[in-house]
Every structure is written in structure tokens, then in C-alpha cells.
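Lecture 7 notes: from sequence to structure.

We start with a single chain of 252 residues. Read the sequence below before looking at the structure.
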Amino acid sequence: MNFQISRSQALQCVPQRKLVEALEQTIRNCPECSKRTDVKIDQNLCNNCSVRNKAINRYAEANIPIRYWPLEMSIGFEGDPILLKEYNEIIIDLRKTYNKGPAICFAGGHGLGKTLLLSNILKRVVEKGYSGLYTTLSDIVSIATSREYDDRDTARKELLLIDFLAIDEFDPRYMANDKSSDLFGKILEEVFRSRAQNCLPTFFCTNSPNVVESFTGNIKQSISSLMNYIRVVAVLGKDFRKQEKQERQELK
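Now the structure, written as C-alpha cells:
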């Protein structure tokens, strides 16, 4: 049985030009394909390039941020060891992870490698043939308020049915008022409860150490209820983005 879910355009944020450039770069880097004139990004590729470009297309389809396509948790990761431990436990047997359907929230400050973790999980997921989606709470808020009913409905179904869902930036900055807070709370509650009932893996990342207390108003009750079913992993360490910025300034 080949079950395909409809993909929402509203949940796709990878620029098409960037995708094409990445596919072309694969060819330019290949000693064999770069010398041939009959090669295109999807035709007459050597086996290695074919596999690589198939993976890149899947990364884009899963909406994985482009900067994380070449970055691997298993190569030179210097963040909190708990992230690497959780990553290895999740990907070591993706079939087992999929069947178990965990719900995990990674909570910690900025620049600790949480988005890198989500991206790497999803890369392994799509490479194994599962469907995956990276999104943010901001994206979900935008979709919930969209006037395009068809795509809004498609997005809702995708959030409910995708094999592996990763929601980044799970914090209250997008809750403008109590009315919107109540709406988003109901949407998140529907998405999570449906996924939990169907044992579908769901991963969250937040910059707030205390997820529930960071929210206010009507959504706080919904989040509080949801967190009873979500395992929270505290992430510690230094902000690598600040460190990278400092190192770049020192090189100038």
C-alpha cells in the first residue's frame, strides 16, 4: 500500500533557486559527472550523485533549513552531550522510533544545537523513506490565520499525518492576544492529541527553560495539558552562534 499525504505550499520555505544550486553543486563536485555534457540535476547522474541529489530533494521537501543540509551531529559536535545521546537513541532504529511515537521537547537557550538536532533527525528520517516536516510555531500561526482555506486544510492534515514532525521556536512570542492565543492553543491541542493517539513521533524545541510558564492567557492551559504527555529534555551549554560571531570578528 502506497500512502501519500498532500503537501502544503504554506509549509514549504526552501527557496527553489537554492535547491537547484545545491543539486548543481553535487555535479560540480563530482570528478565523473562534472566532465560529462549530458548530465543534468535529475538525469544521467552517476550512482553517488543520484543518491546525493535524491537526498537533497527529500531535505527540501521536508522543509529542513538549507544551512543544516551539510552539517552532521556525528561530526565535530561540541554541544551538550545529552543532545548527541538523544539523537543516537532516536535514529539507531527509526522503525522502532516510528512505532513507539515519542513526543520530546528540547528546552534550552539560543545557539545550543537544538535546530541542528531536529534537522539531523529529519535527514535520517527522509533518507530512510519516511515522510518528515520541519516547521516553526510561527509557520503554524501564519497558516492558522491564512485566508486560503484549501491550503490551510492541507497544512492541517499534513501536521496531523506526517510520519515525523519537528516544531521549532515553540515559544509565546507569536501570541498577540488572548483571542489568538485561544485559537492557536486549540490548533496545537488538536495536532498533538491526534498524533499522540496515532503514535506519530513529534519533536519540539523551545528557548524557554519552563515551557508552560513562558505562555500566558488561554493557551497556557492547553500547553500545560499537552506537556503531561511530552518528555522534556533540558539542554545546557554555551551559545555557539555568539562564539562563531566572535571568532569571525577575531579573524578580521
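The chain has one domain: 64-251. Keep this in mind for problem set 3.
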